[in-house]
């Protein structure tokens, strides 16, 4: 004779009781001990990306674990730590820069971006860094394209690691920056002929991929060959970050706030050294026409008005093929890298 079936409602109550018992058991772990475990887990990436699933798994154990995870794992603008891939598209901190460096391979037209892991101003000489992104330069006739990827060994638009690209005009003095992901909710993909659908889902798996125009970099002409360094003007789409908490986990959303205009900080002529100089605070040691500092304009209707104290991007040479790159809010690591890539290459009309 068959055993009587347990009513569905009773079965659900029993399952819920078991789940509650399991949650209570894990919730007994001291929050201080759990916080230390999560801090070590977040810091364990070193030169490699930590597995985000490990942090997410910890946060999914119970409500207390979610609360602790939310207090430990902070977004980039607050923590200043590039822990996850999504941080590459988030604006940097406001009060201090993220220190990175770029290694160039002239032979293969490759550029590698690393996050510095030490506080040494000359870190590229001794610091291996954490690999962030790579770019490869391609010639498309007269214009030049830099394809940016999360994969240092496979850099192409069809790759799942595709992040975006930088494309120059005929003279190599005007550049457009394209992001593989929409910079804000409701953004429309560019209508250029180079648009394709990509499988890049590693940074924002919940949104579609394409080519979204997020910025322009222009170098002013110097046809009279007057004495002085390059002059730059950048117009960037830098969305503000709206941060909300859902089930004690950070959810990032973006909204459009208009264009941010940046221009190079004007250097001063040094009579004794007979050269143009900028104060890079020890982060740049080799004179180069590529060196620059970008500052935000104080009045968008007058791009020449700037706040000299607000340097949002600094780029300069420290070795034959090593350059430092320091950025902060409102730029992301991807945007800063793309702007720096535009500085490479000869610009006959601008210098």
UniProtKB/TrEMBL annotation:
InterPro entries: F-box-like_dom_sf, F-box_dom, Tubby-like_C, Tubby_C, Tubby_C_CS
PROSITE patterns: TUB_1, TUB_2
Lineage: superkingdom: Eukaryota
Record domain Tubby C-terminal: where: 88-346
F-box domain ranges (all copies): 52-70
SUPFAM superfamilies: F-box domain, Tubby C-terminal domain-like
Sequence similarity: Belongs to the TUB family.
Name assigned to this protein: Tubby-like F-box protein
Originating species: Sorghum bicolor (Sorghum)
